[in-house]
Please model this.
Amino acid sequence: MKTCTRRRVVGSALVGIGALTAGLLAPQAATASTPHRPMSAHHQGSACELGRHGQTKHVIYLTFDNVHLTRDNPNVPSDLQQMPNLLHLLKHNGSLVTHHHTPLMSHTGTDLLTAATGLYGDRHGQPISNNYRYFHPDGTSSLANTFTYWTDRVYDGTATTTDTSYSLLTRRGTNTPAPWVPYTRAGCDFGAIASSNAIVENPTADVPKIFGPNSPEAQQVKNDPDPYKDSEVADYGGLAVHCARGSALCAGKHAVRDRLPDEPGGYGGHKMLVGNKYIGPHLTADHSVNVKDIFGNTITNPYATGPDGQPKPGFPGFDQMTAANTLGYVAAMQEAGVPITYAYLSDVHDPHSDPSHHGSYGPGEAGMEAQLKSYDDAFGTFLSRLRQDGITTANTEFVVTADEGDHFIGATKSDCDGVHVPCTYGPGQIGEVNTNIQGLLESQRGNTTPFDLYAGVAPAFYVRGNPPAAAPATRQLERDTLAVTATNPYTNRHETVNRYLANRTELKLLHMVTADPLRTPTFVAFGRPDYYECQTGFGCPAAPYVQINPAYAWNHGTVSRDINRTWLGMAGPGIKVQGLDQQTWSDQTDIRPTMLALLGLKDDYRSDGRVLVEDLTNAATPYGARGRPLLRLMRTYKQLNACVGAFGLDTLRAATHAAATGSTASDSTYTIRNRQLAHLGRHRDQLARKIKRVLDRADFGGRPPRLGVVRSLDRRAHHVLHRAHRLSLS
Model:
C-alpha cells in the first residue's frame, strides 16, 4: 500500500505480562503448546559462535513497518503498549532507545536498507524510495523500484531500462556490500525473511538471474500468465538462506551460487537457498512446503491457487507478513539451524485479515485493536517457543526496531480509548489530504513548467530536460512550490503545503545524492505531513485540487517529529538491562555497527553509524579513562552527520530560505547561500570521515585515540555545527 507498506477488542492486552523464566517470558497462551520442529542436528553442530567467548549463538533481528512506541491519540495506548509481551522483553531484559531516528527521505525502502547496511542513501543507492525516477537521455524520466534483488541493476519493469547502474550502489558506482557477508564468513547461515533486497522481490526479473535464464524455475515464471506472478511469489519470493561455506543446509541440489561480484575482499564459494519451495522442506517435520505460522496454521499465499483450488502454501506476500507469519518463519529457521535471522513484519495499521475494511485503521479502531492483540499473542507464543528451544537472552541478541513512525491523518478522538471503548471514524474524519501539486502550481502561480513527480508527502521533482539547478525555470518552480497553499480540511487552516525544499546542493548534505546522476531529482519538497502530493493525470483530485482520501491514513517521508523519530530495542549478551533509554540520540545507521561490535564481527567498509556504547555493558566497551570524552565525540558526530541531526536540519532551513528568495531578474541571495552551503558541506564531509576513522579504530581495532585528538575533533565539529546554525537564522 502507498503510505504504509513496502509495496503497494483488546480487553486484557494491557493486563498480566507473566513471569520471567530463563531470561525470557514464560508461556503466555494456550497456543504455547503448538507443535513445532525440534532443533535440528545441523543446529547442534553449528560452527556459529559470536561475541565475547563465543557466548552468542543466535541473532534475531526484527523490523516492524510503522509500529509506534508513542501514542498517536493521547487516549489510546500505543502500538507497543498493546504488545506487552514484546515490550516486556525489551524493557526488562535490555535497553529500549526512545530517541531513535530515520534517515531522509523517511520511507520504508530507505529506512530498511540504512538499518541493514549502516549506510545513508548516498552510499547504498536508495535515498528516495520506495520508488524513484531516473532521467532518460531525452530529459524525460521513468519510475523505478527500490525493491530489487541485491545485485540487480535499475529495475523499472521493462526490458529497455536506459539506466544500467546498480540499484544498490556505492559512491564509486559499485554494488553496495551485502549485510549477510560478515555472518556467513564467520560460519553462520543467514536467514532473510521478507528482509529488504536480500530475497526475491520481483520473480520476473529475479528468478532468471538467480537460477539461470534456462532453468526450470525461470521457465515456470515465464510460462505463468499471471502478471503479478503470485504463484512464483509463493514459491520463490520473500525467503532466502545465505549460507556459510560448507553449510549442510546448502549442500543439496537446490542451492545456487550466492553471487556478490563487487563484495570487498571477494565472496567465492558461498551458496544460498531461495524461496519457500526449497527452504520449506528444511523447516518442516515432514519435509513439505507447509511451513506453519506461530499458531500452527499453514502459511499460504492468499492470491495464488494450489492444485486443490485452495490458497497455495508458501510465502504470503510482503503485505501479509503479520506477526504470526513472520515469527513462524523465524522460529522454524532458528530450529532448523539458521542462527542469524533478519525479518520484516507488516504494518499493524493495515487490515491484513479484514479485506472488507476500506483503507487503513485509525488509532483505537476495533479492527486495529484486534490486530494488535493478535500480534501480542504471537509474540507471547514465539518467546515461549524459543525458551523451550533454549534460545534466550543469555545466548541470543534480540534487536527489534521500526522503519519509521508514520503520521496519522484524521480526527483526534476523545470519546474512546480503544481498549474499553473502540474508536470509530465517520466520513471526512480519516484519510490523507490528497493534493494535486501540479494543479495548484498552475492555478495559483501560473507555473506550467513540465516536470515528472515521484508522488508523496516528500515529493521529488524531475524537471523535464534535466536542466541545471540554477536554471531560471527551475528556480521559479522552486519558489512557487514553496508558495502554493491549501486549506487543511481537518483544521480549516489555510497554509503552505510544503515546509522545506532541498535542491541538489542540500540533497547532497542530506546524503541523498548517489553515484548515479540520472536518479538525482531536480529538487525535493518536504511537505506538511497531512498532505500527499501527486500530479495531474495520476489519480489526483481535479479542481479545487485538494480532497480527503480515506484509503490511506498514515504518511511518511517528510521532515516531521512523529515520522523521523522511532525506537530501537536490544536485549542479549553485552546489552545493559536498563529499561527505557530516553537520553541516547541514535539513528538507523547505528544499528549495524552496534550489532557487529557486540558479535565480534566487522564490515569490509566503514559504516556511517556509531556504536551505541550507552546501551552496552562495560565489558563490551573497554575504553577506560577515554570513555567519557569519546562518548561526547560520538554524540557530536551524530548531530554533524545524521540526516535529521542538527547540521542536516539547520542546512535544510537555510536552503529553504534561499530557495524562496529572488526572481528571474536577480537571484544573488540564492547563489551566495548555495555556495556557502556547498562549502560547509565539504567541510562537514571531511571532518565526519576523520571522526569516523577514529571511532572505528576504537570500536573495531581496539585502539582508543588520544584525549587530545578526541577533544580537538569535538571542538572542530561544534564549530561546523555553529556555522550551520548561523546560516539557518540568516
